[in-house]
Amino acid sequence: MPHLCNPLVDDTFMQPAHDLLENYSRAKRHLAGGLTDERFLRWGIMRALENDESGRAFLQAQADQQNPLARSTWFDAFKSSRRLAMLTEVATTSYHCFARELGERDWLAEYEELKDHPIWAVDGHQIAHATHAPRDGKGRHVASGMIYGLCLHGGLMRPLARFQGDAKRRHEWPVFKENWRKWTQHETRKAMPIIVADPAYVDNQHWVLSSINREALIITREKENMAPTIYGPHAFERDDPINRGVIADELAGYSNAALRRIRYRDPATGKDFVFITTCKHLRPGLVALLYFLRWKIEKAYDVFKNRLAVTKAWGTGETAALMQAHFVALLHNLLTLLLARLEHTGLGEHKVIAKQRGRRERTAAQNRVPAQEKVRHAFTLTCQFIRLVRNCLRYKIPWEQAYPLFKQRMQCYL
């Protein structure tokens, strides 16, 4: 990658998205001048990366770099259903193409029983309302809320649907329930999808029926006010290191369904958890592991908020909200893909790996969690990596100069 004709980092980073636009988008139009679809795609990704405080600030930064564009042209593009269709095609196709390339970087590669399952950590994410957003009946603004999914195989993000914003409030569960099948239509992994979610997604009857219909499986936590009837235990291998921390694996009856119930005590913290699931075939320790990996979606949201500074809606309306979500997720996935490609050249987040190794070495043997220690590559995009990519794109740095910088920034903390 960095040694072929010494291209710019900019070219290498944006190329996967532009290739998808050129080869897979049926909604693309060939416009002459102005805000072409190629320029709109690039600028949307840069808008998410550049952490400008507003759309006007972003446009000024582009104009100051001799890339002027009329304000009305840019903001009107975020109302275009045709542009949204184009972006959705690119973003959706990118997920599948990137997932294939990231196959060797599977976080869960050590677990054979998980390889055929699409596994999604799901949660809602809220950001501040747009400047001109309408108010609700009580004169209050409503935060813009979007449901995302994080693939627990490769760390790729996908937006699903907006659940609130523009003076409207909805709980995220019914919105997810209406839309989640969109995610599973074109999955290449053939086993049932596994949804890993917090207790806000508890709907026992829905998930039991989804399991019976072979649509999806669920892993979540039991709510405190749930009063199950314990029917009996399931046998499991207590000597299996993956099951360390499992206290009981049992069948439990709730008011409208029977589910598998796993009681677990985290060896690292001593804290007790109770998981409920429709996954009947997984070792109980893997059920616990997948729920703990759900935290990675919260880490991704932290990247959005604190490292990319995407804290405010870019516009009003459903179309603008979905465009922003697709651009932010596409940027996250392009960064993840670039990191994987750098690893193939011998670079990697050595500073993060060393930190994780040191933490494990300081943990007493009885407090270690073998299931978590076997998860590979599952670390958050770091500030130094994101800053360096931003600077390389902003200042048009060629790989000949950038490669030593990546090696330095990924070796140790500043």
Question: What characteristics describe this protein?
Answer:
nine-stranded mixed beta sheet; alpha+beta; 15 helices; 414 residues; 9 strands
Description:
The protein is an alpha+beta fold and 414 residues long. The chain has helices at 9-24, 37-49, 55-64, 71-77, 81-101, 172-179, 181-184, 204-212, 284-293, 295-307, 318-344, 350-362, 370-373, 383-394, 399-411, and strands spanning 119-127, 144-151, 157-164, 194-197, 217-221, 229-233, 246-253, 258-265, 272-277. The chain contains 15 helices and 9 strands. The protein has a 9-stranded mixed β-sheet, sandwiched between helices. The radius of gyration is 23 Å and the shape is globular. 43% of the residues lie in helices and 15% in strands.
How many strand elements? 9
- Strand content range: 5-15%
Termini gap: 26 Å
Q: State the low-pLDDT regions, or none.
A: none
Rg measurement, Å:
23 Å
* Run of helices and strands: HHHHHEEEHHEHEEEEEHHHHHHH
Average pLDDT figure: 93
Shape: globular
Based on secondary structure, the structural category is alpha+beta
The number of helices is: 15
Strand order in the largest sheet? 3-2-1-4-5-9-8-7-6
Sequence-ordered SSE layout with sheet pairings:
Elements lengths: L8 H16 L12 H13 L5 H10 L6 H7 L3 H21 L17 E9 L16 E8 L5 E8 L7 H8 L1 H4 L9 E4 L6 H9 L4 E5 L7 E5 L12 E8 L4 E8 L6 E6 L6 H10 L1 H13 L10 H27 L5 H13 L7 H4 L9 H12 L4 H13 L3
Parallel strand pairs: 1-4, 4-5
Antiparallel strand pairs: 1-2, 2-3, 5-9, 6-7, 7-8, 8-9
Helix pairs in contact: 1-2, 1-5, 1-11, 2-11, 5-11, 14-15
